[in-house]
Amino acid sequence: MAGEFQETIDIKELLRKYPKGLNISEISSALHMHRNTSAKYLDMLKLKGDIDRKQSGPSKNYYLIQRMPISALIRYTPFPAIILSSKKEILMVNREALNLLKCPLDVLYGEKIRDLPYSLFKESIIEDLCHNAVQGQSEIIERETHILGKKLHLRLHFIPVVFDTGRDGCAVVIYDSTENIENLEKLKICRKQYEAVTSDQTEFIVHISTEMIIIFVNEAYCRYIGRSFERITGLRFIPMFQADERERVQSIISSLNPGNHSGNLDLKSVRKDGGIGYENWTFRAIFKDNGDISGYHAIGRNITELKISESRLRQYYDNLEKLIQERTNELQGANRRLLGVISEKEDLEQELLFTQFAFDHASDSIILFDEDGKVYKANRTAGELLGYSDVEMKSISVFDINPSISKEEWLHMWGEAHPGKKERIISIHAKQNGEIFDVDVSRNFVQYSERMYFCSVAREI
């Protein structure tokens, strides 16, 4: 047995040197082996699928071939398989092929492949590739077809096979790539949608591989550093930061794990004008199902203005603390002085109460207006005359009280206003219920605490 094994090895080594093949006489002469013995070993090798035989004129040439035993193919392939004889007749199919083609075995068995009721097998190239496979030449093609109305993307492998009897054949192994192609199309759509979203973002978005190589950046980051997408992708990510900040970036990225997905850093940078800038970056690790890191996602933004504002705010706060202390000391002195005048204020308050009483109970309507025409102050007589409560008087304007005054006329009056200017006219007033009545009005401008007011003293005619 050992001798026979060595002789078959010698035959295979010899044929490996002659890809175009040798006949029995050439093999016997080269190996110093009897012709009948050579024929026996050649038949054994052909039965095993190690060599193939081809008629070339009156002689038969033998050559090495990668022809798969049909029993091994049927047993181990997980894909639909159709087995053809050298005459392209279907001899075997597996269960997966019946499920794919949606038909029973009797529809397929014994038929030539071109006669199957499917448009996929009607193409002339299918029969040619089956013929080539029978001759020992494998091929792969991809086709789109419809089976029972469903569109499928199929990849057909034409594989040279050998039957247990030693006869040559062809196996058509079908791989259904429909789901993969549909997923790839969905992935393309997702990528386009993602690019559409990221392109309008003002934040910097960077995708990084596990080797710290930049594989994607958005337009905002390209504009920020002044380089195109093509010039940035493929570069190492860490060197994009200032030398004194790279160790911090590397440290926080290295610390990411399933229990700590992300980290955040404020980093110094050099602006285009040469000044010191600041950036805020959030680094997030992307994990596979098994917990391994598949890449990193980084989001950054320019926070230079924010940092400058924070610095100014701290300075203002420090100044404010000092100012508060000074003002506290001043207030303490003022409080001491205030205690000395409290008694004087009590007398003044009594006088003010009397003045307010006299103002409210005056026989004429007295109203003070501000520059916008809003009622600043009015006595009770004015409210009783016009039909408004004290609270309602605060919500009306001169245009509600005197409908004869336009906004242009009001602005003109204030344009010529000066303290002490007096005027007496006959005009009209409107009550809350809409009733119009004539009034004798004495009006003038008064100034108090650097503010000007329009004073109207009216008496119903």
Automatic annotation (TrEMBL):
Entry's Gene3D superfamilies? PAS domain
As recorded in UniProt, coiled-coil segments are 306-351
Domain PAS as annotated: residue spans: 358-393
GO process terms (BP): regulation of DNA-templated transcription
The cross-references to CDD domains, in alphabetical order and at most eight, read: PAS (cd00130)
Specify whether Methyltransferase is a keyword of the entry: no
Alphabetized, the UniProt keywords read: Coiled coil
Any Pfam family hit: PAS
Entry's InterPro entries?
Biofilm_reg_signaling, PAS, PAS-assoc_C, PAS-like_dom_sf, PAS_4, PAS_fold
Q: Outline the extent of the PAC domain.
A: 263-315
PANTHER family named in the record: BIOFILM ARCHITECTURE MAINTENANCE PROTEIN MBAA, DIGUANYLATE CYCLASE DGCP
Name this polypeptide is given: PAS domain S-box protein
Which species is this UniProt entry from? Methanoplanus endosymbiosus
